[in-house]
Write the structure tokens for this entry.
Amino acid sequence: MKELLQVSASPHIRSKRDINKAMRLVIIALIPTLIFSTYLFGIRALIIVLLSIITSVVCEAVMERMLGRNISITDGSAILTGILLAFNLPPGVPFWIPIVGSAFAIIFAKQLFGGLGYNFINPALAGRAFLMASWPWAMTKEWLAPVNGTLSGIDGITSATPLNLLKNAANYGDPHFVIKHLNEFATIKNLFIGKVGGCIGETSALLLLIGGIFLIIIGITDYRIVVGYLGSFILLALVLPTRGSLLFHLFSGGLFLGVFFMATDWVTSPITKKGRWIFGIGCGVLTMVIRVWGGYPEGVSYSILLMNVFTPLIDRLTRERVFGEIRKGKK
Amino acid sequence: MAKGFSGGVHPHEEKYTEKIAIEAMPLPKRVYIPFSQHTGKPALPLVKKGDEVKVGTKIGEADGFISSSVHSSISGTVVDIKKYPHPVVGESLCCIIESNNQDEWEQGVKVKQNYESLSRKELIEIIKEAGIVGLGGAAFPTYVKLSPPEGKKIDTIIINGCECEPMLTADHRLILEYPIGIIEGAGLFQRVLDAPRLIFAIENNKLDAADVLKKEGVEVVILKTKYPQGAEKQLIKAVLNREVPRGGLPMDVGCVVQNVGTAYAAFQAAKYRKPLIDRVVTVTGDGIKEPKNLLVRIGTRAIDVINHCGGYTNPPKKIIFGGPMMGIAQFTDEVPVIKGTSGIIVRARAQTFPEGPCVRCASCIDVCPMGLMPTEIYKFVKNRRFKTAKEFGALDCIECGCCAYSCPARIPLVHYIKYGKAEIRRTEKK
């Protein structure tokens, strides 16, 4: 008998982009920021990132082995989680912090919920929230001033990150004086290029913006979440009673890291097009609400985590319009 | 005004044969003509073992309204009527004819007829008798499309020359080489349906074909090269900005879409009384020595066609009938070319795509031209929740393959949805 030919259902071709490639592209988009952060905060920042990556990958492999799953560490998702978690840590944290945090992220937030594709919250943000709740002193006090810059981005004020200054201006001198300096062009410029204190991966708005736009152009990141997030954020920054200017709010804190690299996480954001708008807008609103009225100076990570939890509900309530379906209200 | 539809993908075109002229393939020694080559009921056999047949002899009679007659494509003797591999349904009743190498045509065929004076009824009858079906792939009997029920007014006929499937060039070559016949055939459709407007739709990767048609003075609409531009509903949306309602037909929005090959076949039927006994097939792929566009008699086995193209480069791993996006993989190279076979693609390398977990990237949703959520339907089918799959529009799926093509987790979404559709239909029948 002749050898039978291979049969399979159509289509018989696939696009070149698989999960591994997509993950690699996201990692590439983060590399400029990593290099810049290493320059700003020294080799210490790089070590934290590497520790976080190694722990993530090891935990992933061990968990998958124990749970009888295929070992999938080559797909790059654990590496990405490691990088993102480290990017959310202050550069001065003790070295055990990234290890504990990424272990929590992979073991509890990702693998115990079923591994890649099944986690309902962003593992990196879950890891950060866990660290914030357990060791707040390490997560809020261990800032380092960048080379040739100050923690606040303002000459003369060396302590406290910009958003901290905005929230607690009175603790650092004459509030009017402090706020005035925060909204100055020089400060905004420092914020934009990243000559300012903050978490390892959040300082340079410029580099994050470049990486984020790169991902939108090549079609990995969905523009709806980004536009929804930034749009609602900008609107509220103009409307809500805050002493920070629009540009100050845009370039300070972890906004761009959150908008371009965490809110847009495939697994934990809605799949419907309408849902992605709602998700993005929700993130923007919550971020600004926390910044203005919340107990924390920064609201990016908690807003995204909260919206992650809403994702299944958003997906359920929004649905795509099927071709040829007659819209309600139309004849 | 932008001409388009939402969704779709851009696979590599790989149209290697677009510059190669159509060549008539020498007659095969034997043909294997299935009685079912169309949507609808199989034709009823009219011949038996030992009968002599000529080219164009009707060997199968249409059975019911949605069916089509079948004709002999060579002259010779019926050597057997039995089950034989079929490119679409796996196996079906087939008439095997041994050639006498004479190529004698049935009386009256190939004689020029005066068809201008024929009435609409006569034209429909001729197209029905000639066994003409849609040559784009679905093989829906053409005369049925030309007989809309009372009260359905058709205002526009779209002649589909998109050929959006990668690798295929049969329609492209046909337009370049036989534009007059296509236009005449399209004119017949227009007369039959009394439609005021006739539009030729061409993708902008075939501007030479568009120019040829424009020179003849017909209305040509040039569309973006995007798959699946040639899908009936998407084409109507792109050309006329009309949306065929869910579960509806193009005639519900006053349209009829016909493939260029079908128009050409209708022209040949009217002018020469020539039944549908051959078609243009693109033979291509890395497993083929000399890729070609061939005029092939219906019933010729794939292996005979491939041998005419210099044979295999390497032992074949996969043979696809149709295009790479919607074509059907064959288990043997002995299946015959049928009316709906637009291409034969031979792959010398086996390609498998291991299925990963869905990462909810939603690219399947973004590319679905029907506005469906393939990943949701796939999950419901996997969990045997067929009712919910139906609620999510599983039956609206046109199986174009955009979702599975773009899925980074390599989930064979179309495979799951096809299975789900079959299960939904099975339970509904009960």
In short: Chain B has a mean pLDDT of 93.
